Each structure stands twice: as C-alpha cells, then as structure tokens.
Amino acid sequence: MTMKSHALFALAAFALSLPALANPPARSTNAPRAAQQTRPAPARTAPARTAPAPTAPRVAAPTPAPVAAPAPSPSPASPNGAITADQVAQRIQEFYDRTTNFQADFTQVSINRLYGQEQRSGRVIFRKPGRMRWNYAAPNNDVIVSNGTTLWAYQADERQAIQQTLTQSQMPTALAFLTGVGRLTDSFRFRLLDANQFQYPNGYVLELRPTSPQPTYERIVFYVDRTTFQVARTVVIDAQGNRNQFTFTRPQVNVDVPDSTFNWTPPAGTSIVRP
Predict the structure, then answer these.
(1) CA torsion sign, 191 to 105 to 133 to 239?
(2) Residue 148 backbone zone (phi > 0: left; psi -120 to 50: alpha; other: beta)
(3) Is 4 helix (H, G, I), strand (E, B) or coil?
(4) Domain count, the chain
(5) Which domain holds residue 84?
C-alpha cells in the first residue's frame, strides 16, 4: 500500500465518525452504549520497510469562517468561571444537532511513521442521515462517498475502489453517528488542552479519547470555534503516533444538497474490493 492509499483508506475508516454526520436522536435519560469497532481488511499489504518518524509540522490553525447557523445558547460556567471540557463537547453536539448538512474545503495532512508525510486537499459535503462525499482535487481525483447505504473509497491512479455496505460495516461506533442512535458525548471522554500552545488562542482545543478502545485511532483533537462551536480542524492520532489532520475552510451549513451528489458508480475497469 502506498502512502496515498494508506491516507485515503484511513480517511474512509475515520470519516464516518466525524460529528458533522451526527443525526440527533430523541432525548433520553438512558444513553446508548457505543459499540466496539473492528478493523476492515485492507485492500493491499503495506511493504515491509521502515523509515525514520517524521516530525509533525506546525501548521497555523485557520480562522474559521462565519456560518449561517443559529447561535448556541450561552455556556454555563464552571465554579471557577471557565467553561469545562464537557461543556465544550456539549456545545459541539448542539451545533451539529442543528445542522442538516455541511460542506467545506478541506486540507488533509497525513503523517505516517512508515510512509512519511503527504498533503492533499479538496471539498467535502455531509448530509443527514449518513450521506457524505469527499472529492479530492487534481491530480489525485480520489473520491470517498456514502449514500447512506453504501460506502465507496476510490483511488483514481490505481483504479481501485473499496465498497462497503454500511449495515454490515465493521465500524459500528462510527455508524452510531450516521444513524442517529449515538452522540459524541456518549462515546468519548474530554479534556481541554492549552489553546495557546496549539497556536489557536481564539478558540478551544479539545482532546477526545474513546470510552472503549478503538483499532483505528487512540485519540482525536478538535480545534473549536469559540463563538459557534463548529469544528474547524480535526487531528486523528493512532497508537503508533501516526496523524491524520483535516482543516476545514469556507464552511457552509444547511444549504440544499441534492441526492444525486451522493450517487457514484465506479469507472469502467475499476478493481473493486469488498471487505
């Protein structure tokens, strides 16, 4: 598996768990339990070679663009007058509960101990329930798309696509967000990090650790807009220290997105892998 293959398939595994896909469930005093994930089989085997671990670049966090969404209710203060990590997480959930669809430009920086570093960009669109599309810009032209039933991850230069039926997915915790039976606040523990240290002084930097071990990541870091509580950047970190970072710019919310956006057919000659 090449560096680009690894980054693409890592995104396919993780993108399902992004909170922008969350469909709000009915309020209940009994929180649903997050299911445990198992790792999908990779399409190809990574070469047995090692390389020195690269040093993660210090990428300045963007100033999130304003979004056309209702303002969240004021955050209750902790006893010392500061907002808590759990309160930030709750406000994030509330923002995406009010969001039926979301789209933005994205920049992905993947840092892998075996393959090195790669940066790519494109446009991402989410729509509830369970629909998403990641279009990578040229020269990659890769596509990750879900119509709510089937997930495709297409690597254009190798003409290879992973097809996965979401009802048979091996990522049930992520599916909880897709189907609306789970909430961000049910699946993670939260900790606020020093925003100045992360060069994000005008927002919150929130660390999320899953309440049960996950095979595809160890923790996630959210860069959160202080006013809207929209996530402007996510960093996914696995147990080996590999990092997959997504920075979102020019966001738009609750703009009509047609169903046809999430329909995709593999080009002729594509090799299809079904885990």
Answers:
(1) negative
(2) left
(3) helix
(4) 1
(5) 3-23+78-255
